[in-house]
């Protein structure tokens, strides 16, 4: 009998050490060499490749790969978080490949991930924007340079506002259409300069029923703004600001089981102040955000709250906090204005 070591006879610890240096494609090839090797190379390192997945929303090939992986129960059952990446490159949203649209492929992938999940739901969904140059990122609290960056986007790229709007609408409409429950939803809350214009929340809720999908939501993180660089007229109308706030409240009203809430606010640039120095209607409504939420939403299960970049008043903040029984409360760049 030969005393030479064989791949099949290597101890589990050595096999795991080898696998740690291999990309996923090579690990998959290694698993095909022998039954014992397959078992030994399918442990922690291999499984870690499926716990956190990224899907490029604009890429047909990536979406098809996601559908394939989601259909493998042994892989998709390991999923803990799913990041949906939107690219700023201009593309035709209705384009088809193989008779299927991007929305159909995304819907099928999310359905399978949900079906094969050990939790019976989508554990975590995060929306992010990719494909931006370094100079395109700005302060997580100040939008003073937001207008210039939006208007200077190259012709082959959409603005950040357009990109976040489309990815938000496409994703949430798919989730609503298939009634997919979610535990954790992160809407551009990564402090990287991405934010969702509030009118997109109002618009989405008018055409999609998210009550089933959000009723079990436990964690919600949102990065929002009233400001749209392409619309400087409506932002100064009182009805505009109130409609935006109502949309946020309607979304929060659907989250009956919420335990962790993070609201990150991009403040309206000083350039939108009225010439006489007073705040426009949008900023006035921004100060009432917490009051509107307190008056219309009930958070019986909320334990953790994080507020970032919000402009409000001390009475509004106190009223909001009195209605909650929190275990953790964090504030960053929260500006308290005098109330009259």
UniProtKB/TrEMBL annotation:
Its domain of life? Answer: Eukaryota
Which source organism? Lachnellula suecica
Record-given protein name: F-box domain-containing protein
């Amino acid at each position: 009998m030969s005393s030479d070591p064989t791949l099949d006879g290597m101890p589990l610890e050595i096999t795991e050490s080898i696998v740690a240096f291999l990309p996923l494609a090579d690990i998959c090839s290694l698993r095909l060499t022998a039954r014992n090797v397959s078992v030994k190379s399918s442990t922690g390192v291999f499984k870690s490749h499926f716990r956190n997945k990224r899907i490029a929303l604009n890429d047909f090939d990536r979406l098809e790969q996601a559908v394939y992986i989601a259909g493998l129960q042994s892989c998709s059952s390991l999923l803990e978080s799913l990041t949906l990446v939107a690219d700023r490159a201009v593309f035709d949203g209705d384009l088809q490949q193989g008779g299927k649209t991007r929305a159909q492929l995304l819907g099928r992938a999310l359905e399978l991930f949900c079906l094969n999940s050990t939790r019976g739901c989508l554990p975590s969904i995060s929306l992010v924007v990719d494909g931006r140059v370094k100079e395109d990122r700005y302060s997580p609290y100040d939008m003073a340079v937001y207008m210039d960056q939006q208007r200077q986007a190259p012709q082959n790229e959409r603005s950040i506002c357009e990109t976040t709007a489309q990815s938000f609408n496409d994703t949430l409409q798919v989730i609503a259409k298939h009634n997919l429950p979610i535990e954790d939803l992160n809407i551009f809350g990564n402090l990287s300069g991405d934010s969702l214009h509030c009118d997109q929340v109002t618009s989405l809720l008018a055409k999609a029923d998210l009550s089933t999908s959000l009723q079990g939501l436990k964690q919600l993180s949102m990065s929002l703004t009233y400001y749209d660089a392409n619309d400087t007229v409506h932002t100064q109308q009182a009805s505009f600001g109130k409609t935006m706030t109502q949309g946020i409240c309607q979304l929060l009203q659907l989250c009956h089981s919420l335990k962790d809430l993070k609201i990150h606010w991009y403040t309206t640039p000083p350039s939108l102040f009225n010439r006489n120095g007073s705040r426009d209607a949008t900023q006035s409504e921004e100060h009432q955000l917490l009051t509107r939420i307190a008056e219309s939403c009930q958070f019986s299960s909320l334990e953790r709250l994080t507020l970032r970049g919000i402009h409000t008043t001390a009475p509004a903040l106190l009223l909001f906090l009195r209605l909650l029984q929190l275990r953790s409360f964090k504030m960053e760049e929260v500006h308290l204005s005098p109330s009259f």
